Amino acid sequence: MGTGWCEERCTSVTGGRRRDKGADLWSRLCTVTLLFSVLCGQVSPQCPDSCHCAWDTGTVECSDAGLREIPEGIPPGTISLHLERNYIRNIPERAFSELVHLQDLYLSNNRIDSLASGALRHLGPELRLLDLSHNLLRKANREEFGSTRAKTRLYHNPWHCDCALQELMETLNLEPETVNGIVCESSVRGVGEGSRWEDPGSQGEHAGQALVKLLDSGVNFCSLQRKTTDVAMLVTMFVWFFMVIVYVVYYVRQNQAEARRHLEYLKSLPSPRKTPTETDTLSTGF
């Protein structure tokens, strides 16, 4: 029942001179309908600009919309959110914090190259699918993903394989059929691999290889990080110990120099001379 039609009908019934019980009843019904329509219009969720919302399925479709950031005003009851094929570059920390019922999040084919700390941590426990494939991600860690157990797609990103990415791989519920698409565009060296004088501009010998296959073959990027940390601690302790030794030697030498100068000063003082009375007293025994 349209509000305009209801207003017109109410006016035609109540505006005339004839007022009977049916007219009064119809007037009251129209008034209640108009009030209900106004209230519903005020509380109904709004669809973000450049998006299409299907309220019956809880789907918000924002694909191919030319978006450069996550749109504001996404309805809290959204179940499936499509943001594919846009120009989004990063995900803010609380971008999806209000979407507690979200089950499917599609972010593929964007230009995402960074995730804020905890950017995906606020996704609800109902999340089933997280698609970040075909983006520009190079680094990621567990803090950015939180404790999500959704099936995750990370393939076709220019990954830099290191310890953080290895730990993330071991934590996430990766989609099995896409895991081989997580390829190292560059990497750090594992323990005992190659020369220590590696060209800083090189991509590493693991470039172009699937990360899961490297891990299965025994490559451990975290061992290198732990070894580097241990070496740094040893070097720091050695430097600290060396500085303590230098200070002790300096302190001892300074004290020796001060003692030597004091002794020379005492030697340079004139000897006390005896008075004649003291000499006679001593010679006579009195």
Order of helices and strands: HHEEEEEEEHEEHEEHHH
Uncertain segments: 1-19, 34-43, 191-201
Oligomeric state of the chains in view: single chain
The total strand number stands at 11
Q: Biggest sheet: strands side by side, in what order?
A: 1-2-3-5-7-8-10
Tell the overall outline.
elongated
Mean pLDDT: 77
Count of DSSP-assigned helices: 7
> Radius of gyration, Cα only, in angstroms?
41 Å
Distance between the termini: 143 Å
Task: Give the biggest beta sheet.
Answer: 7 strands, mixed
Portion of residues in helices? Answer: 25-40%
Beta-strand percentage range = 5-15%
Structure description:
It contains 7 helices and 11 strands. The chain is an alpha/beta fold and 286 residues long.
Q: Helix and strand layout, with pairings?
A:
Layout: H1 3-14, H2 21-43, E1 52-54, E2 59-61, E3 80-82, E4 90-91, E5 104-106, E6 114-115, E7 129-131, H3 142-145, E8 151-153, E9 159-161, H4 163-171, E10 173-174, E11 184-187, H5 211-216, H6 221-268, H7 276-284
Helix pairs in contact: 1-2, 4-6
What's this entry about, in short?
The protein is α/β, with parallel strands linked by helices. The chain contains 7 helices and 11 strands.
